[in-house]
Every structure is written in C-alpha cells, then in structure tokens.
C-alpha cells in the first residue's frame, strides 16, 4: 500500500513448512533461459567458477547452495534506504542500519530488494534515479537486488514528477476496455525498467465495494468483481510485456474497509462465500495471468480466521486460502511492516518472525531492520523457522529474479522516460477515461 507510512506489498507463502512444501522446493530449478553458447576453448581460458556461471544465468539451485544463512535471511527483507546516491552518507541510514550509505546497508544486510520513495531522498530526476539504482545493484554482490516502487498512478504515484502521467485505476476501469489497463501498465513498466526499477507493487486487485473506504477508493479498478478481475489480468499482462515484475494487492481484499490500515486495524466481516464472490476473483485472475507476487493486507477477517490476527500474520489465510485454495506458487510479500495495522498486537521483532511462519516470503519496510533481521535469524538458528522453510522463500524470490531478468545486466535508459510516443499514448488513455 505504500505511502509515507507504508506500502502495499506482496503476500505470503506457507507457515510451518509442511513436508509437501519441503518436497516442492527441495530441488529448485531455474526458469531463466540458458546462456548463449560460448566456444569451449574460450570458456576454458576464462575459466569462470561454476558458481559464477550459475549466478550469471540465474541458476537458482546453484545460487541458493552458495548462500550463507545470513545471506538467505537478508533475501527476505525489502527495506527503504535513504539518499539520492548509493555512495552518499545519510543520517537515516546510520540510525537505521548502523552504516552511512545505501551501498553499505546493502553490503551489511544482503537484502533481497529495496523500495524507492521520494520522501527517502531517492528521487529527483530520471538521470539521478537511474544512477542510484545502478549503484544499488552494484553493491548487492553475488545475488541480484530487486528494486521496487509503488507506482500505481493516480493518488499513489511516487515517481509522478518524472514519469509519464497516467490515469489511476478507477478512471481506467471506467473505460470498460481492458486494453487501456494493459497499455497503461506496459508504459509504466517500460519506463520503470528504463530507470533500473525491476518490480512494481501494482496492480491493486481490491474490489472497492465500500464507497467510504478511506485508503483504497480510486486506487481500485471499480466495485464490480468481474470488471476488476478483467482489468487486473490485463494490467499484469502489460507489466510482463515490459519485462517487469508485478504485484497484486492487498490479499485477501481491502475493498470493504472503513479504517485505514496505515493508522489502525480494519475488520471485514465477509463470510467465506462472500469472500469467494466479492474479493477473490481479481486475485484468481492475476494468478491465471502469471502474477509474480501478491501482497498481503493488514486486515482482520474473523470469518476466514477467528484468531484475530491480521491476514499478514495468518497462516489460515496466506497458506490455506492463497496457496492451497487459489494455487498461488509465486512470491508473497507483506504490506509495509511499519503500518499500525500489523504492529498493534506484537512487537516489531515478533511480527517479522510470525509473518514468515504464516507464509510470507518478503518482509516489506520493517521499521527496525536490525531488530527484525536479528529476530528472523535467531528463529532460523533455533529451528523455530526451519531451514527448509527459509529455503522455500529464498527459492521463490530467486526464481522471480531469474524470470524477470535480474540476474543478467540491467541497463538503464532515462532518456526513454516521457518519450513523445508514451505521452501520446497517455493522452489517448486519459481521453477515454475522461481525465484531463
């Protein structure tokens, strides 16, 4: 959900690591295409190590085998780093990570990714942002860094000052034409990739059935589950056509809330039958279109899980509904862990551990990175989080990176942003949506 307080980010995997999950992820394979052939004589002269060759082509199993426990735990995290350059000192980095520069924070904690925000000093113009993302990737070492942003357009548009302006989801949904959703996502993804950003925390898959919803509203494609599902599927196709990872949010659904989960803990009284009819269709559609990640919601649905825990910490919802019933096999990300909706019941250290046990793969925006990282690492070393459970999440994260080309060279082209062709397409979409 990503705003100043937080993000709407992925959703969750499985909780206790059943034997089925262990078997399903014990022998990960790469989904990346094979490397181009190289003459044998040349290869013998250069003699790169097997692990180096594996990393270059995105060999997930070999990369996982070469990682330490500390590096694996780091892959679960996606924090905010502060500053406009990878090598620039910033007092917030010192306060939050114990090191001064974004590059040093990445080298220290080995995070699987970082999230970009203007309020963190990350964004001034396209050329600067492209240089920042390049510097961040260079600091990541042997495992590529995923760089994400919450670029929904409309009211959530952290890069709005530098990228092509497009209508928000509800305006696009009002056109009734999924081609507009696909093209808007393709344009967005193309520009993000040109800036070195490889994941967008979009599209919003919530069905906004509560007109007084204080946090979703125009961020959703509409209030009809079937129309929202069609638009979400088209948007996923558009992001993938641009070569960027996409995230459907906020599972199991944030559309019928009257509380903002940035500041409180919403409760939704949908029965399981209502959930299947009202909330689930867009997520089903996203999964059918190969969505890379799903972000959790910090909402309580007592008729789906009577524990009182938000969905982000619920194994019943993340594993039982998302994994088992909907069949999702990709990455589950939490929404931002600095939001009040997930912090009311447990401390920041315990929240991170419980999210992993519930099935989350990515821990987005922990408010205290050292505390959360230390808690997860301790839980792994004590056996509370099993080695197989950790490997399952890291495998999913690495597979996503391989699938979206993050193991290869990520080139930037800031001159592509706001190109005449993109501006023309955006004007056409805005015209159909009735947005000036």
From TrEMBL:
Keywords: Glycosidase, Hydrolase, Signal. InterPro entries: GH (IPR017853), Glyco_hydro_3_N (IPR001764), Glyco_hydro_3_N_sf (IPR036962), NagZ_Beta-hexosaminidase (IPR050226). Residues 24-57 are annotated as: Disordered. It catalyses: Hydrolysis of terminal non-reducing N-acetyl-D-hexosamine residues in N-acetyl-beta-D-hexosaminides. GO terms for molecular function: hydrolase activity, acting on glycosyl bonds. Residues 1-22 form the signal peptide. The keyword rRNA processing does not apply. Its EC number is 3.2.1.52. Residues 69-400 form the Glycoside hydrolase family 3 N-terminal domain. Pfam families: Glyco_hydro_3. Residues 38-53 have a biased composition (Low complexity). PANTHER family: BETA-HEXOSAMINIDASE, BETA-HEXOSAMINIDASE-RELATED. Belongs to the glycosyl hydrolase 3 family. This is beta-N-acetylhexosaminidase. It comes from Microtetraspora glauca. The lineage of its organism: Bacteria, Bacillati, Actinomycetota, Actinomycetes, Streptosporangiales.
